[in-house]
Structures are given as C-alpha cells and as structure tokens.
Specification:
By secondary structure, the protein is an all-beta fold. Helices cover 2% and strands 45% of the residues. The chain is globular and about 55 Å long.
Length: 288
C-alpha cells in the first residue's frame, strides 16, 4: 500500500505520489457529460452495444473509443481479429469467457482483460445473468479494422500474443488517501513498463465514500475520462461549471482543466479513470 496526502487524490487517478504545484490554474475549458448512445443490436440480435466515445462524438478528442455492451447468457461475439487496435474489456457484471488465440480466461465483475492487436478473439457470456462490460479500443474502432467470418480464412495467420489480466479492481497499485477515498492503478504503460502494455492511455479505479471528494487538480497535456460504474459524482471547476454524472455515464475533462470531483450519492461511488496519454507524475498540477 502506498500512502499519499489527501490533495493528491485524482492526479489522475493517482498513479504515483509526485506532483507539480502552481499558483495560477491554466485557462479553463469545458467538462463534457457523455451519456451512452441508444443501444444497437449485435450478433444477430443476441447482444447490444451503446457507444460512449468514438465517431459519434467528434468533438471529444481521444485516441480510443469506448462502448457499453450487454450479452445475455449463452451468447457471445463471433471469432474476429482487430488489426492495428487493442481491445480492453472491463467487466461490470456477469461472467465473461474471453478467448485470445490459444489462451482463454474467465473474468467476473471488476476484472480487466487487455487483448493485443490481431489476436483471434471472442467474448462469451457464461454466467446466469447478462454480461455487462466496457470495451475500449485503441486506436478507435472502425469497421474496416475488424475481420470475421469468411474473412478470417483469407488471413491465414496466428500470433503468440497473450492477454493481460488484472483480476479485480483492488489488484492494482493501491494508494491510501486517508480520506474515505481509495484509488488503484490498474493499467499504466509508463509505470508498468515490465508488462510491455501495448496502449498509450492509463486506467485507474476509484472508490469515493459518502462525502468523499478529490480536490482541485489539472493534468497537463492529457484528457481524463471519468466513467461512473455505480453511484453519482459531480465534477466542478473554479469558474463555476458543475456537471453531475450518474452511473452509466461519463465526464470528459480536456487537458489542463482544473476540476474537483465529489461523491454526491448516499452510498459508495465507483469510478473508472482513463488518462490519455498515460499519466505520469510531472503532468499533475494541484490548486487550492
């Protein structure tokens, strides 16, 4: 466990204790509330996908796409390969059986699986309830990068790549904030170089107890996407903008924006933070 002061709370989302201080916040931009798009039927109607970040939101500049998927028990994605793009799966509910070439992993709620590019992959719901998960594709998903069905036979290829698995939200680097806020680094290609992660962004998991908050900070040169798994947060700026983010939605914070994040639910709020490009200590500026 790593112990850091309260003010270091969400330097996105605190993947280390280092920070920069500043007397004046940078110029303010706007927080964008991102709600899931209407669900689209997939896999011959046996699953649905709701886009959050991607071609549907051209004004939000990220180097990845994000969508929310639901697959009923006994159904799954057909085998396919994504060329030049990785796929990260964060399981929110249910149980997934994820194939990655010759490896197969089972993932439950709170587990993260990162699939390298070009692997033959499929995701199947094997539990008694619907499989609910976020899919994050980098570079952003486009139909042209996906090969399935008869197209697979024309590729005639194999890979030796293996999935990267984080077996639960508390299995990453833990930061003890002593404030009713818990932060865990799940994936960071800079702070976890030994894993040779094939992505540019970082991912952290945060729990905010009732009344918990993350003080004003800004991340230099990186955007922060805060996806609410459970509960509600309010993200506000010194200039007076305040955006309430319910479960299933996200707040997109542009680079350099100073913001504060508060739990406005009566229970624990659970949040995922995607920093793009990946967070490093020298990017964070703290403000009072």
């Amino acid at each position: 466990m790593h112990r850091i002061p309260l003010l270091l709370l969400l330097p996105c989302l605190l993947l280390s204790a280092g920070c920069l201080t500043a007397s004046e916040p940078p110029a303010e931009a706007g927080i964008v509330l991102v709600a899931p798009a209407d669900p689209v039927a997939l896999f011959d109607g046996t699953g649905t996908l709701s886009n959050l970040i991607g071609r549907e939101n051209p004004g939000i500049q990220t180097n990845y796409s994000v969508a929310y998927c639901i697959i009923p028990p006994g159904n799954g994605t057909p085998p396919h390969r994504l060329f030049e793009s990785t796929e990260l799966v964060y399981v929110i509910g249910g149980t997934a059986e994820i194939r990655c070439d010759n490896a197969t992993v089972t993932a439950g709620a709170g587990e993260t699986v990162l699939l390298p590019e070009r692997v033959l992959q499929s995701i199947t719901s094997i539990g008694d309830t619907d499989l609910l998960y976020l899919t994050v594709v980098q570079p952003p998903f486009h139909p042209d990068i996906e090969f399935s069905g008869d197209e697979l036979a024309t590729l005639s290829m194999t890979t030796d790549a293996r999935p990267v698995v984080v077996a639960g939200p508390r299995e990453g680097i833990e930061w003890d904030l002593e404030s009713g806020v818990a932060v865990y680094t799940l994936i960071n290609p800079v702070l976890m170089r030994e894993k040779a992660l094939p992505i540019d962004y970082s991912l952290a998991y945060v729990e905010l107890m009732p009344g918990g908050y993350l003080g004003y900070d800004g991340i230099k040169g990186s955007s922060d996407l805060l996806y609410v798994i459970e509960g509600d947060i309010e993200v506000s700026t010194p200039g007076g903008q305040a955006v309430r983010v319910p479960a299933g939605s996200a707040a997109c914070i542009p680079p350099d924006l100073v913001k504060e994040t508060r739990n406005v639910a009566a229970s624990t709020t659970k949040v995922l933070s995607f920093i793009d490009p990946a967070w490093v200590p020298e990017k964070t500026g703290l403000f009072e």
